[in-house]
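User: Predict the complex.
Assistant: Input components as received:
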Amino acid sequence: MSSTFDTPVGAHPDRLGGDHYVAPFDDNVSFDELPDAPPKARFRLTTTGKIGAFFVIFWLFVAVFGPLIAPYGENDLPFPDAYSEFQVPQPGAWLGTDVQDRDILSRIIYGAGRTIGISVAATVIAYFIGVVLGIGAAVSSPKVDMVMSRINDAFLSLPTIMLGLVVVAAVGSSIPVLILTAGFIYASIVFRLARAIGMEIMVMDFVEAAKARGEGRWWIITREIWPNAAMPLITDFGLRLIYVILFVSSLSFLGLGVQPPQADWGSMVRDNLGALQYGASIVPVIAPALAIATLTVGINLVVDDVSAQSGGKLSNRL
Amino acid sequence: MTGLILRRLGIGLITVLAVSVIIFFGTQILPGDAAEIRMGQQATTENIAALRERLGLDKSYVEQYLHWLGNFVRGDLGISLSSDVPITNLIGDRYKNTLFVSMLTALIGVPISLALGIMAAMFPGSLYDRILTFISVTLVAAPEFFTATLLVLLFVFALGIGNAVVVGSTDGKGFFELIAHFALPIATLSFVIASQLIRMSRAAVLNVMSSPYIEMAILKGVPRKRIIFRHALLNAIGPIVNVVALNLAYLVTGVIVVEVYFGYSGLATLIVQGVQTRDFVLIQGLGMIFCLTYVILMLIADIAAYASNPRLRHPK
């Protein structure tokens, strides 16, 4: 068992020799020839990737600074004196008004923070639970691994939206409930991925070598598995975030997610469906739907680019 | 092979039981039971106790669960809490709409997307392939109601065909009239599953195309069409069936959003109503139906994967 405490800060213990055997470094080996080439140190986004990145950065900016740039509060009426349901875009309300006469632009800006905040929080929770348990299962004894995997399989065999409906029916809907529900539901998918990646790495020669050196489980997890599992997991984080956004928006669209009068993109589509059905205006429905689509498609374009350049399209593997 | 399928069926059965446990006990964490909810505010303690006895709520949770599961297997879904009507009556004709839309999506959407995906795999890197890949990457990440809105804009607003709401009775309508009636929901769902199917079927065929025996065929000088249809496609059938089943399972989610969007009555709108009124007997019954469909489709996907890949049949 080695200790890292007696090595200088910032130095890699392997490089110092110590009680480890260090292979002589060979400059002539090109890792690009290996089937799974490591990600290139600097990669460039393709044109589609840049378009995606633009939308992602744009929405992140709106989400963070939304309340500062919104022309109205989320429940303010731009034309309080007039009967102004489903007004077409005009000065004073650049995207028109919704079913309750509120300014659509402001609601979209406020909704950005809520939709993105809930989804990011849920994905982070899903990743924390999923990765800890998944890598844990991969390094545990086969018995523990089997029990954990079987329980996980039961949750995976339910459609996510059904699990969401059952939870919302049981405890009602609020933002913390939404975050925790989405987090737990998607944790089972992250668990499966993290476990698969962990298992793949566990049978690699360098892990065998580390085991043979007598390294402990903690060393193997942090020094051998994590550096190799991080990249595919980070790429998948983007993909998972898309699904969480779609899940949260779908629940809100069904009226079971974010509750009125708080603005959220999914519930805005549902509230304003009447505009489309009565032929009043198309903006109240298309604007929030387009907001979600540009965000999720933007993330997808970036993720596609990153995963294509980090060896093998992850989206195809799943 | 038979043994493996039986084993997979066994696992499927256990999964269904696990799912029923999750659904039954998941909806029981709510404070207050069916008797209290049904009697409402003015109920006396004796009234509630009497109803509780009649509904079997005085028994232990395990007994209640077994009772509920037994009734479910016999087709008795219980009595709705919010409307006091047997749930099978509530379902009535609603299941027909849900079933019709899903089946037709499968019948129309699946062959078209498979053909598109296989064509893309025939000419990888071509302009056609790149455009199709871009469209499917875009649509796969977009929510169902975005696709639905685009279709409504195109057909209802630009071309003046159809209606943004699906209204009117389906009684006495012929097959083609029904298709016209549900054209927009079917089109929406077809687009939703097409985006996945095109990507995955293209990947499945390309995967086979990169194997040595195809290279051999190319070197032998076999014509391109023959390689695809005689050599590659037969080996890609397994993965493709797997992909189709997985995507049909995904329809379970899509159909809920689409029914609410176009506002016609089906099983999905019923379960959403159930959640809004906290009618958990209804949620349990319908939730089981949806999950059963999902589990069965997943089962087909797995068996297709086994059948097509001998290596999976003999795991190391």
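The two ends of chain A are 37 Å apart (CA to CA).
Let me know if you want any component modeled separately.
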